[in-house]
Amino acid sequence: MVRMSLSGFKRAAWHFSEKRVPQRKRPSEEKSRETALVVDEANTCRSIAQGILQSFDIDAVGVPTPEAAMDLLIRGGVDYYNFILVDFHMTTITGPETARRLRLMGVTTKILGVSLNHTEEKARAFVEAGADACIGKPLTAESLGNVLQELRNM
After folding, report:
1. Of all residues in the chain, what percent carry a pLDDT higher than 70?
2. What is the distance between the alpha carbons of residues 85 and 131, in angstroms, rounded to a whole number?
3. What residues form DSSP beta bridges with 17?
4. Cα radius of gyration (the chain)
5. Closest Cα partner for 114 from 82, 84, 88?
6. Orientation angle between helical segments 95-104 and 120-129, nearest 10 degrees
7. Whole-number Å distance between alpha carbons of 20 and 6
8. Does residue 148 contact residue 120 with C-beta atoms inside 8 Å?
9. Other CB atoms within 10 Å distance of the CB of residue 70
10. Which candidate among 94, 141, 147, 152 keeps its CA 20 to 30 Å from the CA of 35?
11. Distance of CA 117 to CAs 5, 54, 112, 137, Å?
């Protein structure tokens, strides 16, 4: 049986949580490249989005939950990222609700809703919640590139 004191547990928990936070510059430091945060529970979809973004020379970080995204934004600065991609269907908080909460946190970053079985109703839900645009899955370099260019011009 392994015994750990409460203080030892706190140190271990802190060490574990700190390792999971991507290392990046503070918001006040100048960025040499655009950055994006991808929020999607599906590992494959998150990896595909990150890969496409990286092919556009955008530094992309992925997280599996809205809570992880909000925590990352609180720790690193609410406007660190140039783009935030949020999936519609997530277990704990929906994509539109995530967008709404991000705006309430003061996030002014361009938010892109992403949805499988993309419909006008889903797009409207995202935009009404504070997203800047919505795109359907599967993501392609062409479709994502076009939407990102539109967001840059907004």
Report:
1. 80
2. 9
3. none
4. 17
5. 88
6. 20
7. 21
8. no
9. 19
10. 94
11. 50, 25, 16, 7
pLDDT band (50, 70, 90) for residue 30: low
What's the pTM?
A: 0.80
Domains of the chain: 38-139 (3.40.50.2300)
* 118 SS3 class: coil
The sheet with strand 110-115 has its strands ordered as: 59-63, 35-39, 83-87, 110-115, 133-136
Q: Give CA torsion, residues 13, 15, 19, 23, to 10 deg.
A: 120
> Is-contact 89 102, C-beta < 8 A?
no
Angstrom distance (rounded) from CA 147 to CA 85: 11
Cα 22 to its chain centre, rounded Å, is 13
pLDDT tens-place string over residues 134-147: 999 999 999 999 99
What local confidence, expressed as pLDDT, does residue 67 receive?
Answer: 96
Q: Which residue has the tokens 């990896």?
A: 47
Q: Is pLDDT above 80 for 20?
A: no
Q: How confident is the model at residue 105 (pLDDT cuts 50, 70, 90)?
A: very high
- 18: CB partners within 8 A, 6+ apart: none
